[in-house]
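Duplicate of earlier report; p23 cell envelope protein input re-posted below.
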Amino acid sequence: MKTTKNLSLIFISVFFITCNLGKSTEFSQDTSQAQAKLLELNRSVGKAKNTGQSKLTQNSPSKEEEEKYETIEGTKNVKAFLVFSSDVTWIKTKAIAIRDHKGNVIPELEGKVRYSYSISPVKLDNEFTKYTMPLVLFETTKGNENLEVESFTLENDSGLDFNIREYPVGLWSWSFTTISIPKTEASSEKGYANTNPFGIIKGNGKAIPALTKSKTVKAKIRVRDKKDNITNAGNTGNKSKTDNIDSSVKEYSILLDSSYLVRLIKETLEKNQGIENTANDFKLEQPAVK
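Output:
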């Protein structure tokens, strides 16, 4: 019975409990140098001029300035099949700016869409679980709910599919069910509206090395503007049959800073001694990115 309960909870909801939480604990790591840079930056930045940009734009550092590492963690009670319930703990980094391959903040996304890393579930009912895994989260700021990151692909590891939304799961040897990874959930981080999560269930052995093997990781994301989507839907009569371009979707080549994920994984391992004995594949390959 306990096994059935844990499987139900894990595969239905616990991977994405970094979002839509009523209670969370925030804390900052010691990053005095980065904080000093941000303070200096904030003094020199005026009000955002572009329409639709949130106040977070004012804190978007330039290429030379590093955003500080901060984490948010919390616990949420989740239910499955209206029968089982369990407490799930998680931890994530605060969202940072999305940059292009040159390391520059992408103007079209600045202050609108940012990204973070999450480890979830860290514990299930205060016990370690073999399903602990990393997630890449793309978070839209309040006022920009029309934007949605609908796909995420690593350029140098295109064989890894982070976009699978449904997974077949065996509850017993004779019974299978299908679970779905939500495309969008509400964000728990202050100033943000929605989160688009991407991960590979039971794929730590390949996903973690791919996301941490170098200081920066090249990736591509496709961002849909649902406002443009609605406008285009009303103008379909003017399009020719050969016009297959969806102007509501734009692809961006981005650069992920893997040091945030490496630090998050190390922190999770250090704060949860023994987790590796249960989640055997939740580990960093050596040498890890510093």
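The first helix runs from residue 2 to 12.

Merging into the original ticket.
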